[in-house]
Amino acid sequence: MHFTEFHTRVAAYAVIIDADRILLSWYNGGPHGHGRPGWSLPGGGVEYDESVEQAIVREAMEETGYRIRLGDPLTTNSFTDQAGSPADPGGKPYKSVRILYTASVVDGKLGTIEVGGTTDRAAWIDLDRVPTESRADIVDIGIASWRSHQLSVPGDPIAS
Question: Which terminus of the chain has a lower count of CB atoms within 10 Å, N or C?
């Protein structure tokens, strides 16, 4: 299928892990019900006039109340959906491209500052207690990529 025959959405996410806890945001399903509510990584769509990195920093602030510092790129992931799907009801098939980075908190106060958006709250959750029944697949992708990255970082205590 030629790229003019489908819609594309680029999204960027932060994997923020500190002391065996991960920072997650609660996606409320959005104003048009474009997905089921559940835990997700802080992140979202890249705006027309911003870089992937700028989008991650902006989204993290909106969804968690924290100013973050980006670390390493972790992975990319993509999926497709059929025409008229809840993800893109515009009549064309849909492709989502998702980019994940590690990040750390610089400062701020935990709390969603986005008004009228798709995030209701944010929370630090123990890595081994992330709810399985109410989380987006991007959380699993982020955790697995982060763990793999930790094993490849020389001198990291986890890799030793």
Answer: C
Q: Is the pLDDT of residue 82 over 90?
A: no
Pairing outcome for strands 94-108 and 43-45:
unpaired
Confidence check: pLDDT of 138 > 60: yes
Mean pLDDT of the chain: 89
By the 8 A CB rule, do 18 and 105 touch?
Answer: yes
Contact 152, 73 (CB under 8 A): no
- For residue 142, the tally of other CB atoms under 10 A from its CB is 29
Where exactly are the structural domains of the chain?
3-152
User: Which residues on neighbouring strands pair with residue 66, listed in sequence order?
Assistant: 108
pTM score, whole prediction: 0.88
Q: Is 154 exposed, middle or buried (0-12, 13-18, 19+ CB in 10 A)?
A: exposed
